[in-house]
Design brief:
Elements: H1 7-23, H2 29-47, H3 66-78, H4 84-96, H5 130-143, H6 150-164, H7 184-190, H8 198-207, H9 212-219, E1 226-228, H10 251-260, E2 270-272, H11 284-290, H12 297-304, H13 310-319, H14 321-336
Family: Belongs to the peroxidase family. Classical plant (class III) peroxidase subfamily.
Keywords: Calcium, Disulfide bond, Glycoprotein, Heme, Hydrogen peroxide, Iron, Metal-binding, Oxidoreductase, Peroxidase, Secreted
Catalytic activity: 2 a phenolic donor + H2O2 = 2 a phenolic radical donor + 2 H2O
C-alpha cells in the first residue's frame, strides 16, 4: 500500500531541500522562516508597487525638460514682477492645505465648480500668480501635451521660485494628478489665518501631518514677498480690543507700519514681509523675529509666545541659515506629500483653470 504525502508535507520537505542545497547545512527553522518571509515580501514589492509613491524622476521619459520649462517661465516673469517668486510659493502652500496638493486652488467657477477657492478669505484679492501658472502650462503642453499635472506645476514653480530668490533647491517629488473639485469652505477653515493664535496654527499644521519644525520652517517663506495692511493692521492701533498696539511689536517698526497703514487708510497697501531683504530668500526673517519685527501676528508669535516649542527652532534658524535651508527643503517635500492624487485618481487638466470637459 502506497502512502501519499499530504501537499503541505511535500511543500515543506521541498523547501527544506532548497535550504539545505543552498546553505549546505541542516535547516534552522528561525532562519528558514526569515528567509522565505523576506523573499515573499521582496517579490510582493516588485509585483505590486505602490501607486501612491511620488518620484523625482516621474517625468524623466514623458517630459524630461519639465523643470527647465518651469524655470524659464518663472525667470521671465521675475523680470517684470519681483513679487512673483513669493506669490508662486504661496500658491503651492494654499493648494496643499485644502484637499491636499491637487491644484484645486487654480479652478475658476464653471461646470461643476460653483464656488472657487480663489475667492475664499485667505485667497481673495490676495493669491496671485495664476497667469504665470497658465503660461507654464501652455509651454509644457507645447512640449509634452497631456502629461504634466497642474498640481505638479505648482510644486515645481515653488521650488524654482525659492531657488531663484537665493534659497535652497531640492528634488521635487512628482506624480500628482489634478482634482476634480474645489473646496471654498475648506480654504476658509484650513489655511492658517494671519491673526490666529499659535495654538490654532499649530493645530492646522498637525491636521495635515506637519509638525512644529515644519511650521517654523515653512513660515520662513515670509523671507520674501509682501502683505497688505488688512492682514496685520489689527496689531497697530487696537490689538485684541485693548486700544493699544500689539506689545510685541518693536516700537520703531510699529511707527513705520502705522505710517504705511494709517487707521483710515487703504487696507490694500503693500508692506515687505522682511524689511531687510524683501526679495531675497534668507534667514533674516528669523532674525527679525528676535528683534520683534515680525510683520504678521502669526510670524511674531513663533518667537514671542512664552514657553512655545517654536522659540528654540526660531533661535536655531536665526543663527544658522544652512539649518533653515535644509529644514525648509524637507518641509516643502513634506507639505508636497499631503494627500496627493495618484494613479488613476483625478485627471491631468489641459487648462489649469477648469476641469477637463467643462
Amino acid at each position: 500500500m502506497t502512502v501519499k504525502k499530504s501537499p503541505r508535507l511535500f511543500y515543506a520537505s521541498a523547501k527544506t531541500r532548497i535550504w539545505e542545497r543552498i546553505y549546505k547545512k541542516p535547516i534552522n527553522m528561525f532562519s528558514f522562516n526569515y528567509l522565505f518571509t523576506t523573499i515573499f515580501l521582496v517579490l510582493t514589492f516588485f509585483l505590486y508597487p505602490s501607486n501612491a509613491q511620488l518620484s523625482s524622476t516621474f517625468y524623466s521619459s514623458t517630459c524630461p525638460n519639465v523643470s527647465s520649462i518651469v524655470r524659464s517661465v518663472v525667470q521671465q516673469a521675475l523680470q517684470s514682477d519681483p513679487r512673483i517668486a513669493a506669490s508662486l510659493t504661496r500658491l503651492h502652500f494654499h493648494d496643499c492645505f485644502v484637499n491636499g496638493c491637487d491644484g484645486s486652488i487654480l479652478l475658476d467657477v464653471g461646470g461643476n465648480i460653483t464656488l472657487s477657492e480663489k475667492t475664499a478669505g485667505p485667497n481673495n484679492n490676495s493669491a496671485r500668480g495664476f497667469d504665470v501658472v497658465d503660461n507654464i502650462k501652455t509651454s509644457i503642453e507645447n512640449s509634452c501635451p497631456g502629461v504634466v499635472s497642474c498640481a505638479d506645476i505648482l510644486a515645481l514653480a515653488a521650488e524654482v521660485s525659492v531657488s531663484l530668490g537665493g534659497g535652497p533647491s531640492w528634488n521635487v517629488l512628482l506624480g500628482r494628478r489634478d482634482g476634480l473639485i474645489a473646496n471654498q469652505s475648506g480654504a476658509n477653515t484650513s489655511i492658517p489665518n494671519p491673526t490666529e493664535s499659535l495654538a490654532n496654527v499649530t493645530a492646522k499644521f498637525a491636521a495635515v501631518g506637519l509638525n512644529i519644525t515644519d511650521l517654523v520652517a515653512l513660515s520662513g517663506a515670509h523671507s520674501f514677498g509682501r502683505a497688505q495692511c488688512r492682514f496685520f493692521n489689527q496689531r497697530l492701533f487696537n490689538f485684541s480690543g485693548t486700544g493699544s498696539p500689539d506689545p510685541t511689536l518693536n516700537t520703531t517698526y510699529l511707527a513705520t507700519l502705522q505710517q504705511n497703514c494709517p487707521q483710515n487708510g487703504s487696507g490694500n497697501t503693500l508692506n515687505n514681509l522682511d524689511p531687510s531683504s524683501p526679495d531675497t530668500f534668507d534667514n533674516n526673517y528669523f532674525q527679525n523675529l528676535l528683534s520683534n519685527q515680525g510683520l504678521l501676528q502669526t510670524d511674531q508669535e513663533l518667537f514671542s509666545t512664552n514657553g512655545a516649542a517654536t522659540v528654540s527652532v526660531v533661535n536655531n534658524f536665526a543663527a544658522n541659515q544652512t539649518a533653515f535651508f535644509q529644514a525648509f527643503a524637507q518641509s516643502m517635500i513634506n507639505m508636497g506629500n499631503i494627500s496627493p492624487l495618484t494613479g488613476s485618481q483625478g485627471e491631468i487638466r489641459s487648462d489649469c483653470k477648469r476641469v477637463n470637459g467643462s
